[in-house]
C-alpha cells in the first residue's frame, strides 16, 4: 500500500500526495557521448522502477550477487518498505547547449521556455548550488529510502554524471491533495492552503502540464517545468518580530491559517475593498501578492523545510527549499516572483540558489524510459 505507481501519463512526484522527506540532486553530464547518456537514462529507469516498488536497485540485490564483485544495490534500504518513494527526473537548459556547444545533438530540441531564470530583487544566487544538466527529485516518507535511491542512481551514473549539488528536506511545506492536512513551514505558518491540488484536473491542465502545441511538446507534452529555489530564512529576525507583524506579513492568521479578516483556513482571501478603501489583508502581504487575483497565474508548490546546521555566526542555516511545477516558467514562477517584489516577507528571506528543469512525461510501459521521446 505504500508503493506509488511508477508508470503513467505523468511522472510520479508532482501531484502525488507530498511525502515527508526529500533528497534532491542536480547533476552535470561529464561525457560527450550521446550513447552513454542514453544508456544511463535507460539504466536509471530500470533501477527507479525497482526501487519505487520497494526492491533493490538491481536484480541481484545487495547480497545476492558475486562475493567478489560490488553489489548492484548498496543495502541500506534492506528491510525498509517502499515508503511511497517517487523519483522524478528533469533536464536542465545546459543539457541542450552549454558554452555554445551542442554535445548531444539536442540544441534544436530545447523548448523555448527552458531557459535560465532572470535575476530578481532579494537574491544572492550561489552558482555552486544552482543549475545542473539533470536533476532527480526523490521523495519518500522515510529519509533513508530517499537517500538510498539517489545514492544508487548516482552510483549507476558513475563516469557519465557527477553530482553538482544536492539538498535534503524534511517536513513537506505543501499539501498537494485536499485529503492532506496543511503542514506548517519553519515560520510556523500553515503552508499549502491555497495550493493547486491533485483533485483539480482542470487547473492542472491549465497551469501545470505541458500540452500539445506548446513549445517542445513533441517530446514534453504531459511533462512539466520544475523550478527550485533554496530560500534562506532569517529565522532569528522572524522570531523577534511580533505575532501581529508575522500575520500582517503573511496575510493569514498563525493559528487557523485563515485569511486576515476571515475565520477559517479555507475561507476566501478578502479582496473586497472596505468602505475606507483598504483591505482586511495588507496589500504588501505575501498572500495578497501571490494570490491569482493579483499575480494572474498559479503554480503547484511542493517544497520542503531544511536546516543545514548553523552558519558559524550563531544563526541557523535554515529555510524553505522551494519547489514549483508549472506549464511554463515565465508565466508561472517568474510572473509570481516578480509580483512579490514589494512583499514584506522579503525582509525575512533571501534566495540563495536557483534552477530550472524540464521534466519529461511519465514512463508509459516496460519498454519506455525517461526521455525516450527526446532522444
Ligand atoms: C502562499 C509561505 C515563498 C508563492 C503562502 C502561504 C504561506 C507561504 C504561509 C499561505 C498558505 C498557502 O496558501 O499556502 C512562504 C514562505 C516562503 C514563500 C515562508 C519563503 C521562504 C514563495 C515563493 C513563491 C510563493 C518564492 C513564488 C514565487 C505562493 C503562492 C501562494 C503562497 C502562489 C498561494 C497564494 C494564494 O493563492 O492565496 N506562502 N512562501 N511563495 N505562496 Fe509562498
From TrEMBL:
EC numbers on record: 1.11.1.-
Q: Which UniProt keywords apply?
A: Heme, Iron, Lyase, Metal-binding, Oxidoreductase, Peroxidase, Signal
Q: How is the cofactor bound?
A: Binds 1 heme b (iron(II)-protoporphyrin IX) group non-covalently per subunit.
Question: Which Pfam families does the record match to this protein?
Answer: Dyp_perox_C (PF20628), Dyp_perox_N (PF04261)
Q: Where in the cell is it found?
A: Cell envelope
* Domain Dyp-type peroxidase C-terminal stretches: 182-363
InterPro entries noted in UniProt:
Dimeric_a/b-barrel, Dyp_perox_C, Dyp_perox_N, Dyp_peroxidase, EfeB/EfeN, TAT_signal
| GO CC terms | cell envelope; cytosol
An example of a Gene Ontology BP annotation on this entry? iron import into cell
| Catalyses which reaction(s) | heme b + 2 H(+) = protoporphyrin IX + Fe(2+)
Q: Which GO terms describe its molecular function?
A: ferrochelatase activity; heme binding; metal ion binding; peroxidase activity
User: Which cofactors does this gene product need?
Assistant: heme b
Domain Dyp-type peroxidase N-terminal, by residue range, is 11-170
Domain of life of the organism encoding this protein:
Bacteria
Q: Which family does it belong to?
A: Belongs to the DyP-type peroxidase family.
Described by its record, this protein's role is as follows: Involved in the recovery of exogenous heme iron. Extracts iron from heme while preserving the protoporphyrin ring intact.
Entries under PANTHER family matching the protein: DEFERROCHELATASE (PTHR30521:SF4), DEFERROCHELATASE/PEROXIDASE (PTHR30521)
Stated name of the protein: Deferrochelatase
Q: What is the lineage of its organism?
A: Bacteria, Bacillati, Actinomycetota, Actinomycetes, Geodermatophilales
Amino acid at each position: 500500500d505504500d508503493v506509488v505507481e511508477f508508470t503513467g501519463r505523468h511522472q510520479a512526484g508532482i501531484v502525488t500526495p507530498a511525502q515527508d522527506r526529500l533528497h534532491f540532486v542536480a547533476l552535470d553530464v561529464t561525457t560527450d557521448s550521446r550513447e552513454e547518456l542514453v544508456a544511463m537514462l535507460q539504466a536509471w529507469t530500470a533501477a527507479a522502477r525497482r526501487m519505487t516498488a520497494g526492491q533493490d536497485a538491481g536484480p541481484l540485490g545487495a547480497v545476492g550477487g558475486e562475493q567478489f564483485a560490488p553489489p548492484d544495490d548498496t543495502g541500506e534500504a534492506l528491510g525498509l518498505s517502499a515508503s511511497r518513494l517517487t523519483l522524478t527526473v528533469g533536464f536542465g537548459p545546459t543539457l541542450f547547449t552549454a558554452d555554445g556547444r551542442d554535445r548531444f545533438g539536442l540544441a534544436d530540441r530545447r523548448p523555448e521556455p527552458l531557459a535560465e531564470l532572470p535575476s530578481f530583487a532579494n537574491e544572492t544566487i550561489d552558482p555552486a548550488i544552482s543549475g545542473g544538466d539533470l536533476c532527480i527529485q526523490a521523495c519518500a516518507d522515510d529519509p533513508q529510502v530517499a537517500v538510498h535511491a539517489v545514492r544508487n542512481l548516482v552510483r549507476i551514473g558513475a563516469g557519465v554524471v557527477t553530482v553538482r549539488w544536492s539538498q535534503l528536506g524534511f517536513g513537506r511545506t505543501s499539501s498537494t491533495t485536499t485529503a492532506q492536512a496543511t503542514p506548517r513551514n519553519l515560520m510556523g505558518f500553515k503552508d499549502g492552503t491555497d495550493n493547486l491540488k491533485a483533485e483539480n484536473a482542470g487547473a492542472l491542465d491549465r497551469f501545470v502540464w505541458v500540452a500539445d502545441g506548446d513549445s517542445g511538446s513533441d517530446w514534453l507534452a504531459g511533462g512539466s517545468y520544475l523550478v527550485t529555489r533554496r530560500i534562506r530564512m532569517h529565522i532569528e529576525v522572524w522570531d523577534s518580530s511580533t505575532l501581529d507583524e508575522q500575520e500582517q506579513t503573511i496575510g493569514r492568521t498563525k493559528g487557523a491559517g485563515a485569511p486576515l479578516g476571515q475565520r477559517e483556513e479555507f475561507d476566501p482571501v478578502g479582496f473586497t475593498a472596505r468602505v475606507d478603501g483598504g483591505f482586511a489583508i495588507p496589500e504588501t502581504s505575501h498572500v495578497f501578492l501571490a494570490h491569482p487575483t493579483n499575480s494572474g497565474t498559479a503554480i503547484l508548490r511542493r517544497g520542503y523545510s531544511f536546516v543545514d546546521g548553523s552558519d558559524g555566526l550563531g544563526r541557523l542555516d535554515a529555510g524553505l527549499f522551494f519547489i514549483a511545477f508549472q506549464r511554463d516558467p515565465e508565466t508561472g514562477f517568474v510572473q509570481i516572483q516578480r509580483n512579490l517584489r514589494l512583499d514584506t516577507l522579503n525582509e525575512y528571506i533571501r534566495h540563495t540558489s536557483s534552477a530550472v528543469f524540464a521534466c519529461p512525461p511519465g514512463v508509459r510501459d516496460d519498454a519506455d524510459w525517461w526521455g525516450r521521446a527526446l532522444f
